[in-house]
């Protein structure tokens, strides 16, 4: 916002937000041949190096007063090229380190850390921006990726199995593996679930400002209650063992949808409680679905499968957010929130029928 031309501010802000995520889809495909057969640790290290290098370059150019808007967008895009492979490497390492019995616990801990960071990070950034420049904050962001790479290197060195190269002759294409019924249906459910979540990010601020005629403080309370609920849920998700994880996943989808429906008619205390419960329900979805992928795929194929999954799924929420504006314009904010909830409930019903059919056909139930 400080460096973009005033007449093109919206354009450059939109490009910057998109550039930090979406090029990962390109990288998932473009780097497939290069990274095929590489250890999971190398994938995560590559991601950390790109993030640290590009974000550090932005900070250096900003400090020198030489940062141009188009250069900023290009460096953000470059930093995100390895996002899908970095995520794949991270969850492959977590799977190896946790083992079959510890996957849920270690996935839950990782998701809990993300939930905590989502609560605390923006708050700290807002406070620090009073005293320091955005460039310095991005330098700290670059340093955090460098630290993650250092930890991944040390963990990989200590756990030799994680650092061993993948047998390229045995490994299959991640996109080819995603066509297997069990993995494909799980990916589709995840994609649509995140897509239907996208309009919520657009509708909730409008709901608070227009429908409720309230201040931004109330919007912060909504998201804080959601984040606290998600954090609490992630901390206890690791205890889920010996249960039908697909059934729990469907209950999460249905529960989150049900929590959005009251926005069509309920007063503020009820919707606040519903959103907090929604965070509690929503929180375990990511560790559960990653555990399903980890248990349904061999260690040889897990990195390529997770990279392909990330490439497919990462566009879902931005697309849902993109249609959120027109939906709010036609249905209103409350109608969009409730409509997202009803569509999510429908998704749970369809997925339940789909997965029941898979279990009924033994030929489709194994991967």
pLDDT averaged over residues: 84
Oligomer: single chain
Helix content: over 70%
Secondary-structure element sequence? HHHHHHHHHHHHHHHHHH
Measured distance between first and last alpha carbons: 48 Å
Q: What is the total tally of β strands? A: 0
Please report which band the strand proportion falls in: under 5%, 5-15%, 15-25%, 25-35%, 35-45% or over 45%: under 5%
Poorly predicted ranges: 160-172, 360-367
- Alpha plus pi helix count: 18
| Biggest sheet features | none
Determine Rg (CA atoms, Å). Answer: 21 Å
Q: What structural category do the secondary elements indicate?
A: mainly alpha
Note the overall shape.
globular
Please, could you describe this protein's structure?
It is a single chain. The protein is mainly α and 367 residues long. The protein contains 18 helices and no strands. The chain has helices spanning 9-19, 23-30, 32-35, 40-63, 69-79, 83-128, 134-158, 160-163, 174-177, 181-211, 216-237, 245-260, 268-282, 285-296, 302-313, 316-331, 333-360, 362-365. Helix 10 (181-211) crosses helix 16. The protein is globular and about 50 Å long. The termini are far apart. Mean pLDDT is 84; it is low at 160-172 and 360-367.
């Amino acid at each position: 916002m400080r460096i973009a031309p005033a007449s093109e501010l919206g354009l450059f802000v939109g490009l910057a937000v998109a550039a930090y995520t979406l090029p990962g889809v390109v990288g998932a495909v473009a780097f497939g041949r290069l990274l095929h057969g590489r250890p999971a640790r190398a994938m995560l290290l590559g991601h950390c190096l790109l993030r640290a290098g590009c974000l550090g370059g932005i900070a250096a150019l900003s400090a020198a007063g030489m940062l141009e808007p188009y250069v900023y967008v290009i460096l953000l895009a470059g930093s995100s090229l390895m996002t899908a492979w970095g995520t794949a490497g991270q969850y492959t390492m977590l799977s190896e380190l946790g083992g079959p019995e510890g996957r849920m616990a270690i996935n839950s801990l990782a998701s809990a850390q993300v939930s905590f960071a989502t609560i605390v990070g923006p708050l700290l950034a807002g406070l620090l921006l009073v005293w320091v420049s955005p460039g310095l904050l991005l330098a700290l962001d670059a340093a955090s990726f460098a630290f993650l790479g250092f930890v991944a290197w040390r963990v990989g060195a200590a756990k030799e199995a994680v650092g061993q190269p993948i047998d390229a002759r045995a490994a299959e294409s991640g996109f080819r593996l995603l066509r297997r019924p069990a993995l494909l249906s799980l990916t589709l459910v995840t994609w649509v679930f995140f897509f239907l979540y996208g309009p919520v990010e657009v509708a909730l601020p409008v709901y608070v400002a227009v429908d409720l005629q309230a201040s931004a403080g109330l919007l912060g309370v909504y998201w804080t209650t959601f984040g606290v609920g998600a954090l609490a849920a992630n901390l206890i998700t690791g205890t889920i063992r010996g249960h039908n994880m697909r059934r729990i996943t469907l209950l999460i989808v249905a529960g989150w949808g049900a929590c959005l429906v009251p926005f069509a008619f309920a007063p503020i205390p009820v919707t606040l409680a519903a959103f907090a419960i929604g965070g509690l329900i929503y929180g375990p979805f990511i560790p559960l679905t990653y555990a399903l992928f980890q248990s349904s795929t061999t260690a040889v194929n897990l990195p390529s499968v997770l990279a392909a999954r990330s490439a497919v799924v990462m566009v879902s929420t931005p697309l849902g957010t993109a249609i959120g504006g027109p939906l709010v314009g036609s249905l209103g904010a409350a109608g969009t929130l409730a409509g997202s909830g009803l569509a999510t409930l429908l998704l749970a019903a369809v997925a339940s029928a789909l997965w029941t059919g898979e279990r009924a056909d033994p030929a489709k139930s194994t991967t």
